[in-house]
Amino acid sequence: MTKVPTVHRIALLFNGNKIFDRDIIAGIGEYLSSTRASWDLYLEEDFRCRPQGIERWQGHGIIADFDDPTMQEALSRVQLPVVAVGGSYADESGYPKDLPYVATDNFKLVKLAYDHLIEAGLQNFACFSLPQADVNRWAQEREKAFESLTQRDGIQGHVYRGVGTSAQSWDTAVEQQIAWVRSLPKPIGIIAVTDARARQLLQACLFAGIAVPEQVALIGIDNDPLARILTRVPLSSVIQGTLEMGRTAAHLLHQMLHGHGAQFSDKRILVPPAGINVLASSRHEARNHPHVMQAMHFIRQYACQGIKTEQVADYVGVSRSSLDWYFRRELGRSVHDEILRFKLDAARRMLQQAHGNVAEIAVSCGFTSVQYMHAVFKRELGCTPREYQEQLMQGAAANPPSSLPSLQESIHGD
After folding, report:
1. pLDDT digit string (tens) for 81-120?
2. How far is Cα 230 from Cα 121, in angstroms, rounded to an integer?
3. Using one digit for the tens of pLDDT, what is the confidence trace for 183-213?
4. % of the chain exceeding 90 in pLDDT
5. Is 141 strand, coil or helix?
6. Residue 122: Cβ-neighbour burial (10 angstroms; 0-12, 13-18, 19+)
7. Sign of the CA dihedral 359, 362, 365, 369?
8. Other CB atoms within 10 A of residue 34 CB
9. Is cis: bond before 187, omega within 30 of 0?
10. What angle do CA 61, 67, 70 make, to 5 degrees?
């Protein structure tokens, strides 16, 4: 006779009014429908999460959202297999101890949104977060990811938390959001830590007449269909790997129920985003070709590290000749010329500060030799670096131009 599979009673402790939790529950359901696992699921009738008294529940296992700070305490007295689900942490101490943990990779979520905005040709970036609180630890992790990316690239990132959502604070919140956006450099790309947060900001921008995506390119995280249909401008969003998280969490618990619990203690699985849904809110049309904008982003970061045209072309993913063609068509100069412009600007700034000697400045700005820097200065500014510095000291060049004229010919140095 065919053996009837054992039926396990499993509690799913999630807040079903959040798209993140709903999609994890859906992933658990997909796992159950594709395997021989036989589970009776306990969920609150209104899909809310109320863990009080869960230690007295007579079941076999639990999958729970540990982004809720009360969950770890509520489950600390439970003598059942538990799989925790939530956001990733840069600090290892943020994870619960002695439990398997399935996490959305917060850094990769933000990086995918950030890279998308860079590819759209933007050079200014901001993050719209949530007020600092234990219940918003995941949002603060996304802030940290944003700050680490902008710091890595030498860009000033702008972070705004605002206030929580309530009927009493709504008008004030909108006014503050508008004031914040108006204070930012334009055009700018803004990453919101959730679609709900992105929808609020998008609505505020439209109310204030701030053009989206022309002035503000906006992207959220969650790919929430409800947030998408509640906005006049379709909202771009990073798609979390929540279905995979649900399937993974269910698989872990299934294994634990069959006597494999010990090997999963402290196991951490970070699930990357599933992709990005690019819609109108982030489709910023750059003045220049996307390849040029990507290359400019790379050059800004690494010009003074002695990069060559080939490295820039590799980063963009096109041939050197193609990238040079795009540059000459859009900017009237070659990639090498653009690298040289950034080096020269950096050298001028260092000479203005009067720190270090000319040889040290040449090395710091990526010139292959002092003689090469001398030649560039003579050709572009009509003086040597030392003469340029002396002119500054004498006040003759108190207000040097912020950008250099187009280089007329390339000095063969790459």
Report:
1. 999 999 999 999 899 988 999 999 999 999 999 999 999 9
2. 27
3. 999 999 999 999 999 999 999 998 998 888 8
4. 53
5. helix
6. buried
7. negative
8. 10
9. yes
10. 75
Rounded-to-integer distance, Cα 151 and Cα 335, Å: 24
CB atoms within 10 A of CB 211: 12
Tell me the C-alpha distance between 189 and 218, whole Å. 6
Whether 237 contacts 24, CB under 8 Å? no
Distance CA 132, CA 140 (A): 7
**pLDDT score for 71:** 86
Residue with tokens 């604070």: 169
* Residue whose pair of structure tokens reads 């990069």 in the numeric block: 307
Please identify every stretch of the chain with a pLDDT value under 50, giving residue numbers as ranges.
Answer: 396-414
Q: How far apart are the first and last CA of the chain?
A: 77
Q: What is the pLDDT of residue 396?
A: 47
| Encoded tokens for 369 | 């030799």
CA separation for the pair 211, 350 (Å, rounded): 38
User: How many Å is the maximal CA-CA distance in the chain?
Assistant: 100
Task: Report DSSP letters for 252-315, one per residue.
Answer: HHHHIIIII-GGGTT-EEEEPP-EEE--GGG----SS-HHHHHHHHHHHHHGGGT--HHHHHHH
Is 102:245 a contact under the CB 8 Å cutoff?
yes
pLDDT of residue 233: 83
The answer to whether the beta carbons of residues 413 and 372 sit under 8 Å apart is yes
- Report CA-CA distances (Å) from 175 to 79, 227, 409: 49, 21, 51
Helix spans in 10-105 (H): 19-34, 69-75
d(CA 223, CA 20): 9
R_g of the chain computed on alpha carbons: 27
The per-residue pLDDT for 298 is: 82
275-277 and 236-239: which strand pairing? Answer: antiparallel
297 and 371 Cβ atoms separated by less than 8 Å: no
The CA distance from 292 to 313, in Å, is 10
